[in-house]
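dumping this here before i forget
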Amino acid sequence: MNPKSLRLALAGVALACSWVVAAQPLPDAPEAAPAKPQVNPPPPAVAPPVTPLTEAIRERVDHLRYVHEHDAHDHSIRGANIVVGEGVARLYETEQFQPRWLDASRLDELIAAVGDLRYDGLDPADYHIDALISFRTDLRAGALAPGDQADLELVATDAMMLALYHLYVGKVDPVKLSSQWNYSTRPFDPKVGFEQFRRALASASIADTFQAARPQHVWYQRGRERLKEYIGLAAAGGWSPVPDGPTLEPGAEDPRVPALRQRLRVTRDYDGAPDPYPPSSLYDPALETAVRHFQERHGLTADGVIGPATRAALNVPVSARIDQIRINLERARWVMHEIKGEFVLVNVAGFEVAYFRDDEPIWSSRVIVGKPYRETPIFRSLITYVVLNPTWTIPPTILVKDKLPVIKRDPGYLKRNNIRVIDSSGREVNPYSVNWSRYGAGNLPPYQLRQDPGEDNALGLVKIMFPNPHMVYLHDTPTKSLFDKDERTFSSGCIRVQKAFELAELVLNDPARWNRPAMDAVVATKKMQTVNLAKPVPVLILYWTAQPRADGQVIFRNDVYGRDPATLAALDSDFRLPR
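structure:
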């Protein structure tokens, strides 16, 4: 089967699972136009012979139907619960209960493919690997009895369906983790999808079928490679912690230096010569370079100084790093089918925005994101226009929680910060004429508070807009010093961009008319101007705490919003399709 067909085949996997969700039969085919009479009608199709094996498969399919109709989730065979029972039953009914797994070498292929799922961050146990190995042992010892072969049919087909489904769309439902999630699910044509899965099941290479199910983006392939590396590190014993002690600076002599050097050698941050014996305790320039490299990978100030934050990152065990990579491979499966062409990607956990072209970032910038109690939401949209010299209308949440307490104490705050009070008719109101003490969370003032354009505007001198219900956008900021911080959770949900004008140039993509000098000329007028994009640019706001790089390393970031544990728990839990 060619790669395109393999990709199409996976539609049937999701379809098979969707049967269980909807508990509905396939839609009837539309009535065909009356056929023209045939002079020589084709002979009727010959049904395959009924054998003890096909009868055994039929009996087990009937039982699967009974389990489904009585709302019982578990149908266990050798400890393996059949998860996609409705899809498995429909497949064998369509194929008149003919077996698919008589060949031991074919079963070997499936077992190998399921075993490799560990490098996708998935647990092979979820895909019945122990039961499959047990069946293989019996199959090699001789032909299985019809009942045992029928059991193998159900277990192997369920394993393959479920594995392909999880590779294709993910095991965890992101909507259950965040109500803000608006990334689309993949559409399927039921009839085409079912036929494609049947062909996938009969394809020449199960390994190729599994590979086609994975996201084809280079990010995902690199992530698998890094997870495989870290699983190997764990098997070799991982790394030992660097002992506690005072801050360690370059040039110092310290007995912890050999442990530090070895720790960095394990993760390929340090590539110097092997230690002499006895090992040197000097914190030399080669080790400093390695420490800076490690700090940069972990979002720390790359100064070469081993303080509490760097030591804490060094001492995160390999098992925790493996889980981080697993979590983010799962997140990648949710969205990688939408990541193509040119797009803007904001990694909230990484405090970074990047512009992608042909699968690789061509530009990036630091960003500031929402505070932990005012998180930047995770969603997607389309950038449609840019505003130079923007005004800022204070949103209700910020007005109530941040601004009203200040205004009540000192209405002059509004004048000093170029904030106008506008009534419903559009007229400006003297802030001293308003009894601000009357207003609060349950009684918003009947005014719009709008900050004039200028260098002190909360949005800076440019904002990049994309429609969304969260009132979130990318923008400049007058508070540049905060970009020097390692963890940048200072906003009320919007995304402040350090190099906002560069991003505006990229999304406008009109260098003849909208280069930086042209933008500066508009800014100098101090008048607001809106510029529409000739072609909208997708913006993806995501949350990744581990990212593979092109140089073969992994970037790790702290879980600033505490989202990793819930994702990991769901990833490690039993998978059940909703009824």
